[in-house]
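Attaching the record inline, Q. Sequence:
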Amino acid sequence: MFDIIGDIHGHADKLEELLNNLGYSKLQEVYQHPDNRKVVFLGDYIDRGPKIRETLHIVKDMCDSGNAVAIMGNHEFNAICFHTKDKTNGGFFRKHTIVEIEQHIETLRQFKNHKDEWNHVFLPWFHTLPIFLEFDSFRVVHACWDDNHVEWLKNNNIYTFEDGVKEISEDTLSKYSSKQSTEYIVLEELLKGKEYDLPEGQEFVDKDGAVRSSARIKWFNPVHKRNYHKDVFLGIGDEFGELPVTEELKIELHSYDSDISVFFGHYWLKGKPDDPNSKSICLDYSVAKDGHLVGYRLDSKEFVIV
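Structure, as predicted:
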């Protein structure tokens, strides 16, 4: 029996409230369920929130004790790249400009006096997190499920094992640095979603204030519900959003049509989820932007929201 939890972004108090509402309680400092239920965490544990270190302890302790499993979010992958030196070209695999630092600044601040813990406990743990997981009746990924990308990952090992320790290989990070590489396309789209270049002259401002000329695709919205641009793109303005979608575009954009349920986070949706029977369910409802932390009881198909 599983409970699935969306993006936390360092909101440990909300996480503890949600775990309590799901029936978990602390025993020997680790959250666990009396009926041996397990949590599946969907990534993005760090950055933005007030209690990042506390969040990581809760999540990792549950995983280490067998009370949870966790996948990688784009923020954990970004952290790996930010802190891993590029021995061939110099610098790091993620730039250290003001944009990248601002996205990661809360984590850096909160681990200022816990550098050993960050460098030797949590960063190595990030390296071991899977990009996706498949179970008997459902699957999870942080941002976008693509069968071809998943199959590529199954056939191409992106990790190395040294002294029994699993980590994303330096070769993988090096190849990811090239936007033309398969590694970049696969990891970028599974962890951050698919994007579509908007028509010339169409721009919008995203949640971080950046002006964008491409939009993330609502791949999880079924083709038959794709009537207007707001039904296929995230974050676009009202004027562009109300334009009708052509039949060609409806079909061209990636969609999810499997009978196996998929759960994901990443998209900073607003409000609350309202369709527990959908085959593609987002559990990120903007806890770091005054929204909600959302869980899902798999067996009863029930949202639990704080």
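The chain has a mean pLDDT of 95. The first strand starts at residue 2 and ends at 5.

More tomorrow.
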